Amino acid sequence: MNSYLVFLPILLPFAGATLAMLLPSNHRVRAFWALGVALVSFSITALILWRVWQSGEPIVFQGGNWAAPFGITLMADMLGAFMAFMAQLVLVMGIIYAIGSREGVVLYPTFYPLVLMMGVGLTGVMLTGDIFNMYVFIELLLISGTVLTAISRHRAGPEAAYKYFYLSLLASWFLLFAIGSLYVEYGTLNMADLAAHIAVEADAPLLPVAIIFFFAAFMVKSAVFPFHFWQPDLYTAAPTAVAVILSAAVSKVGVYGFLRMTTLLFVGQAEIIRAALIILGLVGILYGGFSAIGTHDAKRMLAYSSMAQIGFILVAVGWGTAPALMAAIIFIFNHALIKSALMMLSGIVGSRSSKRTTSFRLITGMGKSMPYSGALFLLGGLALSGIPPTNGFISKMTLFSSGIDAERYISLAILGVASILTLIYITRAFMRIWWQSSDTADVATRMPDHALAPTLLIILVIVLGIWAEPLLAVAQSTSAWLGDPSLYITAVLGG
């Protein structure tokens, strides 16, 4: 199915970000303009996902009507459309939170244009059919995320931005080395064309080099151990609305890359890649879980939690069976909702502090005056721990079920321990903020950030826990699509 529709979710945020700079300097005008653009883009992305799901055919856009592999290809298959839908949903919620935020950074004229540019980068990564354009969109994410962190009023903002920039720049070099290696060997950058060539010429000398560099780049992008050390500082220092997008959506870029590596580009070499993903995922789960228990800051705790939750997803991708891929896709979406809500609620608590901090030392007991936020945090924490009737339970249930089917009992035992760790650090955070009394709480007289966005997210968390059938159906269709790479190749190249 050939349609310009797949181009719009990338074009609209880009045009919206450009036009936002020309609007009156009133930040409310720019805020609602950004929200309107994001909502329209999200609606189109939802329509794309619906059409692809219902028709069973991907939507392909060939730039300039040049047939692949000679032109620029945009490809909305089940995986790309689903991931773009998730990313745009997080972007909309992040903008809603920013509109109700009291952080001074949201008043900057460049704030909302940069947030929209993050949307361009995220959506472009998921929908591009060309590995070099994937690199370009990732660079757009890097630049906008770095600037939005650097302008934060958190004292560690510039340092965190430097760490993120230089580590991500390293990942970008890895990507360029991988792309160059593949281009030298196969003379093409179109992912469908590459997959077809690699399947026939799997003994090319530079192919292992490309795989290693791709793997390293996506490890950095998803903060997989041991390339994780930029993540806690970044999530702690970034403005809350930006931290939401970084933790819930940008962290999935690497996961998306691993899915494309193992189900499309390097199918013949997928076994060894998946074995490495299982090992790194399990290490990340334990390291992230124990680090979250021992950390001193609510946002930092959620950063380490993201490392652990990404580990769950990587293990499922590593198992590689159809049920495991289905579980990974469900986990990706549900984690985005849960982590967005918890990050926002931590930001709401921190907004009551005179120093705008989420340090446990200064916010212990502060939640006593915010029972509503406490109830939302408790529900989100239960979801992150996999307790019914939340969508987190659906994630864990499908993941453990796929592990049993694959007879991965050692991995399952580690996943069970990690689930207990999640419950421990979430309970610890809830008790310190909303239950304990403290004389060190530094409460300001200002109103806290608005709770509309986390409320909407927690409603989705509960609804998808009780009525999970639509998500399960989409995930099953996506998993089935990933099981046959020839479908992707034929849709792009024809024949």
Please, could you describe this protein's structure?
With 495 residues, the chain is mostly helical. It is 73% helix and 2% strand. The protein has a domain at 266-481. It has helices at residues 8-20, 27-55, 78-99, 111-127, 131-150, 157-186, 191-200, 207-221, 231-237, 240-250, 252-265, 270-294, 298-319, 322-351, 360-363, 371-385, 391-405, 409-434, 452-466, 469-482, 485-493; strands spanning 59-62, 73-76. Helix 13 (298-319) runs antiparallel to helix 14, helix 14 packs antiparallel against helix 17 and helix 16 runs antiparallel to helix 18. The radius of gyration is 21 Å and the shape is globular.
Report helical residue fraction: over 70%
Order of helices and strands: HHEEHHHHHHHHHHHHHHHHHHH
Mean pLDDT: 90
Distance between the termini: 13 Å
Features:
mainly alpha, 2 strands, 495 residues, 21 helices, two-stranded antiparallel ribbon
SSE blueprint:
Elements (H helix, E strand, L loop, with lengths): L7 H13 L6 H29 L3 E4 L10 E4 L1 H22 L11 H17 L3 H20 L6 H30 L4 H10 L6 H15 L9 H7 L2 H11 L1 H14 L4 H25 L3 H22 L2 H30 L8 H4 L7 H15 L5 H15 L3 H26 L17 H15 L2 H14 L2 H9 L2
Antiparallel strand pairs: 1-2
Question: How is this structure best summarized?
Answer:
The chain is mainly α.
